[in-house]
Design a protein that fits this description.
Layout lengths: L1 E4 L14 H9 L3 E6 L24 E4 L5 E4 L5 E4 L5 E4 L13
Antiparallel strand pairs: 1-2, 1-5, 2-3, 3-6, 4-5
């Protein structure tokens, strides 16, 4: 799975500007994002080989994932992405609480 990580804001709610290093460190610790791409085999089987019976998230859906999960990479668009196994997804985010409901390709 390829997940677009939620990036930390460069300023706090009180207006304090954060250094680039602090923003990057906080973004690296992010646990939420949006599914950007997903392989055909994701969510087909449990680890024990039994067929997946739960609902599958879709591309564009917002999710929670394990902190520091996957491999971090910078996309051509300048945004941070993580390539991770579907097993590192913890849960989907409620659509009503979504900060980003769609992705621009």
């Amino acid at each position: 799975m390829l997940v677009r990580v939620d990036e930390c804001s460069a300023a706090t709610g009180g207006g304090v500007l954060l250094t680039d290093d602090k923003v990057e460190n906080m973004t690296m610790a992010s646990e939420t994002g949006c599914i950007y791409a997903m392989g055909d085999e994701a969510f087909n089987f449990y680890d024990n080989g039994k067929p997946w019976i739960g609902s599958k998230p879709a591309v564009g859906e917002r999710i929670y994932f394990e902190r520091y999960a996957g491999v971090v990479m910078m996309g051509r668009d300048g945004r941070m992405y993580r390539s991770m196994d579907f097993r590192q997804i913890a849960a989907g985010l409620d659509a009503g609480a979504s900060r980003e409901t769609s992705i621009d390709a």
